[in-house]
Write a structure and sequence with these properties.
The complex is a heterotrimer. Chain A is α/β, with parallel strands linked by helices. Chain A contains 16 helices and 20 strands. In chain A, the strands form four sheets. Chain A has a six-stranded mixed sheet with strand order 6-7-8-3-9-10, sandwiched between helices. Chain A has a six-stranded mixed sheet with strand order 16-17-18-13-19-20, sandwiched between helices. In chain A, helix 13 packs parallel to helix 14. In chain A, about 45% of the residues are buried. Chain B has two domains: about 140 residues, Response regulator (Rossmann fold); about 180 residues, Rossmann fold (3-Layer(aba) Sandwich), CATH 3.40.50.2300. In chain B, strand 13 and strand 14 form a beta hairpin. In chain B, helix 2 crosses helix 9, helix 5 crosses helix 6 and helix 5 packs antiparallel against helix 10. By secondary structure, chain C is mostly helical. A two-stranded antiparallel ribbon of chain C has the order 1-2. In chain C, helix 2 crosses helix 3. Chain C is globular and about 55 Å long. The chains are: A alpha/beta, B alpha/beta, C mainly alpha. At the B-C interface, helix 1, strand 2 and helix 3 of B face helix 1, helix 2, helix 3, helix 10 and helix 12 of C.
Chain lengths: ~500, ~375, ~375
């Protein structure tokens, strides 16, 4: 076998109190798409930061084309041909694509912008990265911005491309386009590494997969030699009980009815353009769509956090007033916001205060003076029941891991026995184990007769949980179908706005 | 975190108490030997200095009121080597004053000079508690067994400076940056106006109040507003040279106050009515030592040397100098009295009849402006 | 610290190619040891720096420090005066701390203090013949009410239209100070005061009782009771719970259905009332008359105190005493011949180092690599 293009041997990186990488090995060959798979905190990002010169390893070596290299800064890595597309793009919004590519190039002011634009156009054609070199970044969609990031790397003659969770912000179609681009780059002799925790993505795009767990390499496998189940086991360290089939729950009465709902986004533009939806007891209605198409606004209007500009929301026959979260809570609506730490939970306060957030008005804590003891006891029981792990009931919740935060949030929202539960991206950013817990809890609620509105970008998740799936695009419902009748292809087209079906209630 | 601060405070307090205790322990023997020396040795020990303290409302570096008093303190220390004269500066005329006076009495000072009017009530309060300490309050009017007051006839020097201004003005408009609307300041403005009009009957004196004693920026601003209103010579009653500096910036003239302010605005300052407290302080301290001190309301004059006019600047012509020097000699000789009739008020009504002298009581309680002053006394 | 947008824990924030050499990293959890050691070291450092300066200007540092401590806590009188100085700081500090807890930047304690002093003086001057048992409660109420009113004025536009309270509270300080000046220079001037900017002295009934032989007045009790009540409100009542949640995260508070506008108004009323009481206790306990410049910046010092105390009521009491001591001790140092300016510098150095140390317990300096250009 040929010498790997990149090889990392025995990489160890220690942070105060944490061993992030311990003897990690990774070998990536030219012409290969290599997935770096692992749960949150498995050490994927640290490893890539070492490779891109951001961190210096405490132990181990890096070889490029078989020669040992020693990166003292990200610039060294870039000059050696290693580039990374971060999850949050590093583009200057008011600049054009060409200007963004030009940023940081040597030659400074002498740069010939027109020639550069031509070169960008050629590159984008060669790799199927459609983008207008003259467009300004703010005019571009998230997918296009990602392409600009890739072009930046290609222009700098990067031979090793690293992408951090590249599909998180893309529609299925866009993701497929991306995979095609990656394959073409690999064919040109590049090595592509992408970080992910989505099994689907790995199976779709990767040639070789290296699994990390707890800062160590578990295995490196060829895609053909493995299965999703095996990958999941290696990643989590145990078998995951996939809920292949949802238990059948009898559809109950209508809980949520939304009629012709309109609302503005933060910029004052119409983000909801007449939404009609119904959710029944014991049902999970999934809302699919690429983030930024009005899902957040929809959830916020229901929760009473955003004024509506028209239309009505009815919960169990009672109309919700204008922008009154208190009344929404009393109507029995639980809400798992997208922004867990900050909206759903108060970062600097402990679990007790956080669990009280919607319960503190209850007279059982005492008439004037609240009994700290009773609240603590109640909080302790909830924490135990939902198996939330934490340093202590009074430790600031910001110290907790994402999965435990979500458990705490769910514990509070579920403990109030809501009629309707609005969950926005409830598993986003969570590892497989935590995702499983969240899914299990949602299904339990469904079985208990709660109506659930689940907003998600993850089609896998929607297929697993939802009874019906609606697709949102630019503030409108593009279509609504029973999950068993839906296809990824069709949903993807609707998410991209290129297909619309008549919604018959 | 919160615990941390609490622990810190505990530590600090403990430290404080420990050091304080050590301090007391260290000082007590000294204090005892001091009193012991007094009873046993009898009379004045050579090494035993008499402690005298001064309390200033402004910083000693103000080049004005507090500075003039501090010059007096230094003079005292130099003339009487057996005196240990300390001071406290920047003491506000409020709650803090009472504590500072108490502390000074507590520290064994025999005489305390409180040099601002606003200390008056606090001086009286503290004096009651320390009958063996002599309190001298400058510019006040309340006395007690152990409280005397002292002040001086600044109007004499003011009158002379007014003569200079009256002679030197071209526009016949003088500006006066006034401090607080109290009799002392009103008296000064009146004397200045009378002096100016004695040599130039067409002169007007415009007054702006700052309600400050020491606020260089505000006082400079007030002077600029007077210059804008047409004045070409600026006089003042503050503890800073700000008004003269404003005059210099605009190419106008100024008259200082408290001390010779020519060093701060050398091209503008014509002269300054100045205080000269040193000799009086020496006299007072000696009187206390000799046991001849009595509570009185001292009001020193130019003859006593407590007020004077600073040397003329070079741009003051010889004839003006001669004129002023002559009047000064008349004042010293008792031939001329500043507030002698006829004196008209702003409305033109005669308030002091021809040949009549204002009583000391009226002078100390001045609450009206003489003719020629443009401005109002806030009521 | 109820953080405003807290700097993120990221040493990677530097884009490729342009990393800063020095970055701040927020500590996840300040260590207990640090919390104790750092402030102590800070004070020692401040004293050391002060000592160098003092030696350079020809003073004996140890002697100066000793006289500072002696003045502040070295005698019964010193201690009592430290407390006297601390009382208005305690009340005003407690006042601003409630507002700060909700991230309401009430910079207006100074103005609220003046209005409280005004309210109390109005009662004392208008009804001079009231007996003490009516006079004092009436002054208490008037002082608190006027302070509360002065807190309400900026609270209303903030609650209704989101008008920045930093500007409004600050501006209202000047209004209050000038209003009191107008009164003491004008209609309320003591006719026998030789035109000095003071009102006539209050009747004896308008004097707060004092501890015998000292100037420590009942305002101390007000402050201690206020601290206890505040602690109870914050940690034992629903209102306090709302205040804490809103301060930590307004989004979470809205999410939980809390009425933020109403709380802005209530908290500013409370905040202003406490600062107003500080003004009332100062005129009724110390000056016994209203006068120009009645507060030498208590309302502003209170802000520093509230922050140093991390807005915690009991700690505010202690930090106020520390500040009272610094001020009182500062005057004593002058008798060792140290000029007032040097004393201010010493006080400044102590504050600077304590605040600086505070930051170090929360953040750590991160020495990044120098990245070649």
């Amino acid at each position: 076998m040929a010498v790997p293009l990149v090889e990392m041997r025995g990489i160890t990186k220690v942070f105060p109190g944490v061993v992030a990488n311990e003897g990690v090995n990774l070998a990536v060959h030219a012409g290969e798409i290599h997935a770096l798979l692992g749960e949150n905190g498995a050490g994927k990002s640290t490893l890539m930061s070492v490779l891109t010169g951001l961190y210096r390893p405490d132990g181990g070596e890096i070889y490029l084309d078989g020669r040992r290299v020693n990166f003292r800064s990200p610039r060294d890595a870039i000059e050696a041909g290693i580039g990374m597309v971060h999850q949050h793009f590093r583009l200057v919004a008011p600049f054009t694509v060409t200007e963004n590519v030009a940023l940081g190039l040597k030659g400074g002011l002498k740069l010939n912008i027109n020639r550069l634009a031509g070169e960008i156009a050629a590159l984008s054609k060669e790799y199927g990265l459609q983008v207008d070199p003259q467009a300004r970044i703010w005019q571009l969609s998230v997918g296009e911005q990602q392409r600009v990031e890739i072009i930046k790397l290609l222009y700098r003659k990067a031979r090793v491309l690293i992408l951090d969770e590249p599909t998180a912000v893309l529609t299925p179609q866009e993701a497929r386009d991306l995979y095609r681009t990656l394959k073409r780059m690999a064919a040109q002799g590049c090595a592509v590494i992408f970080i992910t925790h989505k099994l689907q993505e790995v199976m779709d795009a990767a040639d070789t997969i290296t699994i990390l767990r707890g800062g160590r390499t578990v295995a490196t496998v060829k895609k053909g030699d493995t299965s999703e189940k095996e990958l999941a086991r290696m990643m989590v360290g145990r078998e995951i009980a996939w809920q292949e089939d949802k238990p059948v729950v009898k559809k109950g009465e209508k809980v949520l009815e939304i009629k012709d709902l309109k609302a503005f986004n933060d910029k004052g533009l119409l983000a909801l353009r007449g939404i009609n939806l119904e959710v029944f007891a014991g049902e999970i209605l999934g809302i699919a769509g690429v983030a930024g198409n009005g899902q957040r606004e929809l959830a916020e209007v229901i929760a009473g956090l955003r004024p509506c500009q028209g239309g009505t929301i009815t919960v169990s026959g009672k109309k919700l007033g204008q922008c009154d979260p208190c009344r929404v809570i009393q109507a029995g609506v639980g809400y798992i916001p997208e922004d867990r730490l900050g909206t759903g939970l108060v970062p600097n306060l402990g679990a007790v205060d956080n669990l009280l957030l919607k319960e503190y008005r209850h007279p059982r804590w005492g008439r004037t003076l609240m009994s700290r003891k009773a609240a603590r006891q109640w909080a302790g029981e909830l924490v135990e029941h939902f198996k939330v792990k934490m340093a202590g009931l009074d430790a600031p919740v910001k110290m907790m891991s994402g999965g435990n935060l979500q458990r705490l949030l769910l514990a509070r929202e579920i403990s109030s026995r809501p009629r309707l539960l609005v969950a926005v991206y409830p598993a986003r950013g969570l590892d497989v184990g935590a995702t499983e817990t969240v899914h299990r809890l949602l299904l339990e609620q469904r079985a208990a007769g709660t109506a659930i509105l689940l907003i998600s970008e993850d089609l896998e998740e929607l297929f697993r949980l939802a009874d019906r799936i609606a697709v949102m695009y630019e503030g409108q419902i593009m279509g609504l179908m029973a999950t068993e009748k839906a296809s990824v292809e069709e949903l993807g087209l609707m998410m991209a706005g290129s297909k619309r079906m008549e919604v018959g209630a | 975190m919160k615990k941390g601060i609490r622990v810190l405070l505990m530590l600090l307090l403990a430290l404080a108490v420990a050091v304080a205790a050590a301090g007391c322990g260290g000082q007590k023997p000294a204090g005892e030997s001091k009193s012991g020396g007094n009873t046993a040795g009898g009379g004045q020990d050579q090494n035993q200095k008499m402690k005298v303290a001064f309390v200033y409302v402004g910083p000693v570096g103000d080049a004005g009121w507090s500075w003039a008093h501090d010059q007096g303190r230094k003079y005292l220390a130099e003339k009487l080597p057996w005196v240990e004269a300390t001071y406290m500066e920047n003491v506000p005329e409020g709650a803090d004053a009472e504590r500072v006076l108490t502390e000074l009495a507590e520290q064994g000072n025999k005489i305390i000079f409180a040099t601002s009017f606003g200390y008056m009530d606090y001086v009286i309060n503290v004096a009651k508690k320390y009958p063996n300490v002599i309190f001298m309050h400058c510019s006040g009017y309340k006395t007690a067994e152990n409280v005397g007051t002292y002040f001086g006839a600044m109007e004499e020097a003011r009158y002379l400076s007014g003569m200079v201004a009256g002679k030197m003005t071209k526009k016949n408009v003088l500006g006066f940056v006034a401090a607080h609307p109290i009799p002392e300041v009103i008296r000064g403005i009146n004397a200045f106006t009378l002096g100016a009009r004695s040599v130039n009957p067409n002169v007007k004196v415009k007054v702006v109040w700052t309600n400050t004693w020491y606020d260089p920026a505000a006082e400079k601003q007030a002077a600029l507003s007077l210059l804008d209103a047409g004045a070409d010579i600026i006089a003042q009653h503050q503890d800073t040279p700000g008004p003269q500096q404003a005059a210099q910036e605009r190419g106008a003239y100024g008259i200082g106050y408290d001390s010779d302010m020519s060093q701060f605005a050398p091209n503008a300052t014509l002269t300054s009515p100045v205080w000269n407290w040193g000799p009086y302080y020496v006299k007072t301290v000696e009187a206390v030592k000799n046991g001849t001190w009595k509570p009185e309301q001292y009001y020193g004059t130019m003859k006593d040397g407590i007020v004077d006019l600073a040397p003329f600047n070079k741009m003051v012509p010889q004839d003006v100098r001669d004129l002023v020097e002559k009047k000064k000699q008349e004042i010293i000789d008792g031939k001329f009295f500043v507030f002698q009739g006829p004196i008209k008020d702003q409305s033109g009504k005669i308030r002091v009849q021809e040949g009549q002298k204002m009583s000391q009581e009226d002078i100390l309680g001045f609450n009206w402006f003489v003719e020629g002053v443009e401005g109002e006394i806030p009521k | 610290m109820p953080a405003t947008a807290a700097p993120q824990n990221t040493s990677r924030s530097s884009g490729p190619g342009s990393g800063p050499v020095l970055t701040w990293e927020k500590r996840l959890e300040p260590s207990r040891l640090m919390a104790v050691v750092v402030p102590v070291i800070s004070v020692i450092l401040a004293l050391a720096v002060g000592a160098i300066f003092l030696s350079a200007t020809g003073f004996q540092p140890l002697k100066v420090y000793q006289s500072m401590l002696n003045g502040a806590v070295g005698s019964k009188y010193g201690i009592s005066e430290t407390i006297v100085k601390a009382i208005p700081l305690m009340l005003a500090g407690l006042g601003v701390s409630v507002a700060f807890r909700m991230l309401l930047w009430n910079i207006g304690a100074e103005g609220q203090f003046y209005m409280g002093a005004f309210g109390a003086s109005w009662v004392a001057l208008t009804f001079p013949h009231l007996p003490a048992y009516i006079m004092l409660p009436a002054m208490f109420l008037a002082g608190g009410l006027m302070g509360a009113l002065w807190g309400l004025l900026p609270a209303l536009p903030r609650a209704k239209w989101g008008v920045n309270e930093v500007i409004t509270t600050l501006m209202l300080n000047y209004v209050a100070i000038l209003w009191v000046d107008y009164l003491v220079y004008g209609p309320w001037k003591d006719p026998r005061g030789f035109n000095f900017p003071l009102t006539a002295p209050f009747s004896d009934a308008a004097s707060l009782p004092t501890i015998a032989g000292t100037r420590v007045h009942v305002g101390l009790i007000f402050a201690l009771v206020a601290a206890v009540l505040l602690a109870i409100i914050l940690w034992r009542t629903r209102w306090g719970y709302e205040i804490r949640i809103i301060g930590e995260s307004a989004r979470a508070a809205r999410y939980a259905g809390m009425n933020i506008e109403r709380n802005i108004i209530l908290v500013m009323l409370l905040s202003g009332a406490l600062a107003g009481l500080a003004g009332m206790s100062e005129v009724a306990g110390i000056t016994h008359r209203l006068q120009h410049g009645i507060s030498p910046g208590y309302g502003y010092t209170a802000i520093i105190i509230a922050w140093l105390a991390k807005l915690h009521p009991a700690t505010i009491i202690l930090v106020s005493l520390l500040f009272g001591g610094l001020i009182v001790g500062g005057y004593s140092v002058q008798t060792s011949g140290v000029p007032a300016a040097t004393v201010s510098m010493l006080q400044g150095a102590i504050l600077f180092f304590v605040l600086g140390g505070e930051i170090l317990t929360r953040y750590r300096l991160h020495f990044g690599r120098k990245e070649g250009k």
